[in-house]
Amino acid sequence: MLHRIPVDKLGPRGEAMSQAVTSCVHCGFCLPTCPTYEVLGDEADSPRGRIFLMKEVLEGNLQPADAAPHIDRCLGCVACQSSCPSGVGYGDLLSAYRADHQVATARGFFAKLRRWIASMTVPYPRRFALAMRLARLSGRLAALAPAGLKPLVDLVPDSLPEPQRPPEFSPAIGPQRAIVMLHIGCAAQVLNPEITAAAIRVLNRCGVAVRVPTDQVCCGSLHWHIGSADRAIGLARKNIDAFAGVDAIITTAAGCGSGMHEYPLMLAGDTQVAQADQFSRRVVDFSVFLDSLGIEPLQARSPVRIAYHDACHLAHAQKVRTPPRNLLGRIAGATLVGLTDSELCCGSAGTYNIDQPEIAGQLGQRKARSVVESGCDIVALGNIGCQVQIEQHLKRLGESTRVLHIAQILDLAQQGQL
Ligand code: SF4
Ligand code: SF4
Q1: 353-405 pLDDT, tens per residue?
Q2: How many domains does the chain have?
Q3: Ligand 2: does its nearest atom lie under 6 Å from the Cβ of 76?
């Protein structure tokens, strides 16, 4: 796309934004894969339309507030990157644009309040746990909550697991094949700490020693994707220091992995950019690490049908599709069944189901219906946000299909409990 973006005035992330706009040839191949275009059918809510809108703002032809409703409705799922034949770096454009144009967006009082509450609690496990427990205690008051806060109230789960603090060091069982560091995320610690516990057990049984740095923090994705660049950069710096040493930094959350791969863009032009680059090269998803390491064949107790849901930030952002399926394929007695539109976003997408509850709800329902149609016994995935979203929407359909992280499935299989 031809443009007159003043790259030199846009700071260190200007080049990434200009490059993405330049590469777009307006072909429209991305449109059918865009969840918001699928739901809304509006060019302005498609990748091509958003690239044009961002270009117009960057050139100074359009006010950021006029583009904001369409940019806000973008899930950041980067499905458009997967389907783009021209290699447009839409994710870099969107992240950099949001980092620079956050203040000009207009979302209304309750939408701003919901986003503020989420951004002040979710990335901080103690606060998030406290907020969830308070919300549960006041559950009977939920009916009295203003309609504008309902999307937040709806996300409070029926029950919360007991908190678990993983050990700082868990040795390999048998001969040590590798040593890794584990990033444990923030939402998963509160909503499903079993994912971390299962990942450590599986890695240990595969001969991998696991260190969990105590001074690690939230990956910063939530702040980064809502345009709070300063907060995101502050968290990135802490993690770069906390994870010094070992070759591999394992994550069990697609969103965190994808966010930590964005550290070089976050810190573009900063004195720490080289460290950010080294850090992001060491970040690897649990499934990728284990698949490349190789695991012993496993056996399910009885035949089980598993459908794999592709989290956007694994499939599209990190191009991770095969390793999780390979791992599930190591379980004799487990059959992988197809999931219609497996790569279509489930609507979770960070704070999206808080910011855009209607679209998120439609995508969640659609995903839950695909799960039911697949006839699976278990949905496998690699992201806590998707797990919570799909569980909630299955429940609304009256379904009790289990939704488990890949690490939980392997852990059960290793114990003969699958
Ligand atoms: S597929 Fe790529 S090049 Fe074509 S319109 Fe979409 S972003 Fe632009
Ligand atoms: S990131 Fe997702 S929602 Fe946003 S334009 Fe691309 S495909 Fe559409």
Answers
A1: 778 889 999 999 999 999 999 999 999 999 999 999 999 999 999 999 999 99
A2: 2
A3: yes
Q: Say what the pTM is.
A: 0.90
Instruction: Decide: 54 in ligand 2 pocket, CB within 6 A.
Output: no
Q: Read off the amino acid at residue 136.
A: R
Domain of 92, CATH number, reads 1.10.1060.10
pLDDT for position 411:
98
Assess whether the C-beta atom of 87 lies below 6 angstroms from ligand 1. no
Q: Tell which of 104, 132, 163 closes a domain.
A: 104
Judge whether 388 lies within some domain.
yes
- Centroid of ligand 1 to alpha carbon of 255 (angstroms): 24
Q: Which of 77, 104, 131 is the last residue of a domain?
A: 104
Residue 288 lies in a domain: no
Asked if residues 215 and 242 have their Cβ atoms less than 8 Å apart, the reply is: yes
Q: Please give the distance, rounded to the nearest whole angstrom, from the Cα atom of residue 175 to the centre of ligand 1.
A: 49
pLDDT level of residue 120 (50, 70, 90 thresholds): confident
> Is residue 163 domain-resident?
no
| 73 in Cβ contact with 356 (< 8 Å) | yes
- For residue 175, give the amino acid letter: P
Of the two residues 286 and 129, the one the predictor is more confident about is 286
Q: Which residues of 257-296 are buried (b: 16+ CB within 10 A; e: fewer)?
A: bbbbbbbbbbbbebebbebbeebbebbbbbbbbbbeeebe
Q: What is the dihedral of CA 74, 77, 79, 82, to 10 degrees?
A: 130
Residue 109 belongs to some domain of the structure:
no
Arithmetic mean of pLDDT over the chain: 90
Q: Using 50, 70 and 90 to split pLDDT, how confident is the model at 104?
A: very low
Give the CATH number, domain containing residue 379.
3.40.50
| Residue span of the structural domain in which 410 resides | 295-414
